[in-house]
């Protein structure tokens, strides 16, 4: 049962709907971090999200939900990830590679694109190991995550519908900490992350300035029937205003903020494999601004190789 809890936590901080809107397509959470007792983990997840509303810029009022006459947007993401201990004990490295399928349509017209998203590399360290049991002291992991602009950003799009947007388009570096704790059948976790999105010059002559990013997430769950766990998470992701200039354009930009609420059901299949069914919703909590809002279902699988 402990393996089930730790395996689910490894996936629960990854938020596939962060890619639901072209404006904020990026790698989210920490999808390639070992938080259990294995030495290697490999996994895959498939998510499908539908954009159902839009949050205006800060101070612009309440989000507007789309109707039958609005633009239809959906994103499917196949995410492959792997992580391995690199010192035999507490230091680890991981990689996450997404493939994204965008479908955007208006009326009878629809545009479909399949392309790679932004690859992320993670370096983690078990900073607070749990050598002895403590009722209050958590198990903690520090991490660095580097996101590479292998996907196409909105500023590189050649499609009027932006269906070819699959990434942030910028190098991003973040650092964070994950704390985990378990009491009998109950468990809890928390994540905090702060990062920098670096400015870039594009071939079109447009340049962007750097911006700050941040996120936090809390969650918990209960294990039952020996091989199942039901859990939930609530988190916030924010990016500060990123200025854009060039090509006759000079804008200070606007920041982005979104809240993600999720629920997940995990099944420990055997001793080394875990299946997770998840649901995430960006419309339940706020405020949110300057982003699209989506609801997403996901199915994840992870295989572990013990130390």
Helix fraction? under 10%
Which segments are poorly predicted (pLDDT under 50) over 5 or more consecutive residues?
13-28
Number of E strands: 18
- Major sheet description: 12 strands, antiparallel, barrel
How many helices does DSSP assign?
A: 1
Overall 3D form: globular
The value of Rg in angstroms is 19 Å
* Terminal Cα span: 17 Å
Structural category: mainly beta
Beta-strand fraction estimate:
over 45%
Which strand order do you get reading across the main beta sheet?
1-3-4-6-7-8-9-12-13-16-17-18
Give the SSE string.
Answer: HEEEEEEEEEEEEEEEEEE
Averaged pLDDT, please?
Answer: 87
Kindly describe this structure:
With 307 residues, this protein is mainly β. It has one helix and 18 strands. A hairpin with a 5-residue loop joins β10 and β11. The longest helix has 11 residues. It is globular and about 60 Å long. About 5% of the residues have low confidence.
SSE layout and pairing:
Elements: H1 2-12, E1 38-55, E2 64-65, E3 72-85, E4 91-106, E5 109-116, E6 120-128, E7 139-147, E8 172-183, E9 186-197, E10 200-201, E11 207-208, E12 211-224, E13 228-239, E14 244-246, E15 249-251, E16 256-269, E17 273-281, E18 291-306
Antiparallel strand pairs: 1-2, 1-3, 1-18, 3-4, 4-5, 4-6, 6-7, 7-8, 8-9, 9-12, 10-11, 11-14, 12-13, 13-16, 14-15, 16-17, 17-18
């Amino acid at each position: 049962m402990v393996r089930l809890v730790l395996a689910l936590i490894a996936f629960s901080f990854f938020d596939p709907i962060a890619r639901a809107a072209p404006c904020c397509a990026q790698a989210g959470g920490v999808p390639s971090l070992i938080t259990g007792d294995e030495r290697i983990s490999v996994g895959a997840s498939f998510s499908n999200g539908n954009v159902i509303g839009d949050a205006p810029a800060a101070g612009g009022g309440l989000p507007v939900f789309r109707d039958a006459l609005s633009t239809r947007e959906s994103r499917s993401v196949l995410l492959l990830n792997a992580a391995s201990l690199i010192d035999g004990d507490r230091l680890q490295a991981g990689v996450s590679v997404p493939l994204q399928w965008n479908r955007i349509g208006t009326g009878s017209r629809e545009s479909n694109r399949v392309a790679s998203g932004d690859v992320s590399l993670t370096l983690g360290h078990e900073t607070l190991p749990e050598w002895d049991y403590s009722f209050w002291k958590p198990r903690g992991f520090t991490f660095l995550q580097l996101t590479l602009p292998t996907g196409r950003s909105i500023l590189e799009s050649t499609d009027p519908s932006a269906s070819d947007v699959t990434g942030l388009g910028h190098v991003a570096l973040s650092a964070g900490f994950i704390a985990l704790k378990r009491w009998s059948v109950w468990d809890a976790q928390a994540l905090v992350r702060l990062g920098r999105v670096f400015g870039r010059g594009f071939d079109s002559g447009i340049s962007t300035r750097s911006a700050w990013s941040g996120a936090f997430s809390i969650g918990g769950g209960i294990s039952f029937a020996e091989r199942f766990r039901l859990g939930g998470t609530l988190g916030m992701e924010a990016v500060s205003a990123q200025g854009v200039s060039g090509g006759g354009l000079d804008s200070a930009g606007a920041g982005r903020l979104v809240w993600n609420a999720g629920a997940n059901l995990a099944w420990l299949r055997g001793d080394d494999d875990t299946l997770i069914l998840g649901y995430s919703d960006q419309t339940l909590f706020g405020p949110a601004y300057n982003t699209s809002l989506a609801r997403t279902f996901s199915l994840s699988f992870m295989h572990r190789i013990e130390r």
